[in-house]
Design goal:
By secondary structure, the protein is an alpha/beta fold. It folds into two domains: about 5-225, Alpha-Beta Complex (inorganic pyrophosphatase (n-terminal core)); about 230-339, Diaminopimelate Epimerase, Chain A, domain 1 (Roll). It has helices at about 5-15, 25-35, 55-60, 80, 120-125, 130-140, 145-155, 165-170, 170-185, 190-200, 205-210, 215-225, 225-235, 260-270, 295-305, 325-339, and strands at about 15-20, 40-45, 50, 65-70, 75, 90, 105, 245-250, 275-280, 285-290, 310, 315-320. The strands form three sheets. The chain has a five-stranded parallel beta sheet with strand order 2-1-4-6-7. A five-stranded mixed beta sheet has the order 8-9-10-12-11, sandwiched between helices. Helix 1 (about 5-15) packs across helix 5 and helix 15 (about 295-305) crosses helix 16 (about 325-339). The radius of gyration is 20 Å and the shape is globular. It starts with a helix and ends with a helix.
């Protein structure tokens, strides 16, 4: 496995690096940490799919990169790699995927149980912008090793003795995480503008207190999604558990909040498995969460033989299923959860 120092060396030598990042706060913060330390880098958000595939190769070629760095994407396909003519570095923390032609950093290569967020590793690489690192790490249900130092340097955002889930859902830092999450609900053009603004913001107070025009811009582009989320969560929280599982499904052509609702329900029902699904055309996109039960093995068994796919971590994963297979799929999930 490549070291963080060698990755840093390659970024410093590169004249035109391109960073591909996931469309969640961990992916965004990983990119921001690298971009703010390596200004020559450009960013490319890979939206609406966990996969980096050959379909985006023509778009990437328009940047004329001499180095590609992929952060926090769970799956990179060999077809993508084979069509790229420059070095590729992949920094990730999801289950290991073996590829040819990729320089790979994944803590699971040394310790299969080490799935600390990608933001954690990017922060260790650059060693600056602690507040951005805190947002990315806690957004992915981990607590930074530097948390006490962060609380002292940025008072009023979190209690240093709070559990990570309480920070996520009951603190000003948690509100910042939600802002970072919601700006990623915009169209790609607006997301790129917001990300560009975030590269210039110096403190989290600019955003949370709307102290500068840059902070106000970020805040306003997140706020417009807050009511949609609140209305949807108000429906979800009324759902009663079915044995050891809480199942909430919804239909909308607008913004998806599937992962966010699943996380919030997981906080409210710590002893249950959470299933949140969103009907979109002829498929249902879903998220599975649990504090105590490994849901990834349940997903893998339940989806076998059906028209669907999924992946993720042991206690937080997701996927999609054809609508006509949903009844069979959810019954299998119920069976495995409640057995």
């Amino acid at each position: 496995m490549i070291s963080l120092k060698k990755i840093k060396d390659q970024l410093e030598k590169s004249e035109n690096p391109l960073i591909l990042y996931d469309d969640d706060p961990d992916g965004l913060c990983s990119y921001l940490l690298l971009k703010r330390s390596f200004p020559k880098a450009s960013g490319f958000i890979v939206k609406s799919s966990p996969y980096v595939t050959e379909e985006i190769v023509p778009l990437i070629r328009n940047y004329y990169p001499d180095l590609i760095v992929i952060v926090d994407k769970p799956v990179v396909t060999q077809d993508f790699v084979d069509k790229i003519a420059v070095p590729i570095i992949w920094i990730d923390h999801h289950p290991i995927i073996k590829l040819k032609g990729v320089t790979y950093f994944n803590p699971r290569l040394k310790d299969p149980e080490d799935n600390r967020p990608t933001t954690h590793w990017c922060y260790n690489l650059v060693k600056k912008d602690m507040w951005i690192a805190a947002i990315g790490i806690i957004s992915d249900w981990a607590k930074p090793s530097f948390f006490k130092k962060f609380v002292k340097e940025y008072p009023g955002l979190a209690d240093e003795n709070a559990k990570k889930e309480d920070v996520l859902f009951s603190s000003e830092l948690g509100n910042l995480i939600k802002i970072f999450d919601f700006i990623l609900k915009n169209n790609t053009s607006t997301i790129n503008k917001c990300v560009n603004v975030l590269t210039r913001i110096e403190t989290p107070y600019e955003i949370i207190n709307q102290e500068t025009k840059e902070g106000k811009y970020i805040y306003s582009n997140a706020k417009k999604f807050a009511k949609r989320y609140d209305d949807l969560f108000a429906k979800a929280i009324k759902i009663k558990p079915d044995g050891n599982i809480v199942i909430f499904t919804y239909t909308t052509k607008l913004t998806s909040f599937t992962g966010e609702i699943a996380n919030a329900l997981n906080y409210k029902h710590k002893d249950k498995v959470i299933f949140v699904g969103r009907q979109k055309e002829d498929r249902i996109n879903f998220s599975l969460r649990s504090e105590k039960i490994k849901v990834r093995p349940i997903l893998d068994k339940a989806i076998k033989g059906l028209d669907g796919s999924g992946g993720g971590h042991d206690f937080a994963c997701g996927g999609n299923i054809l609508s006509r297979d949903f009844s069979e799929f959810i019954e299998k999930v119920r069976k495995y959860v409640n057995k």
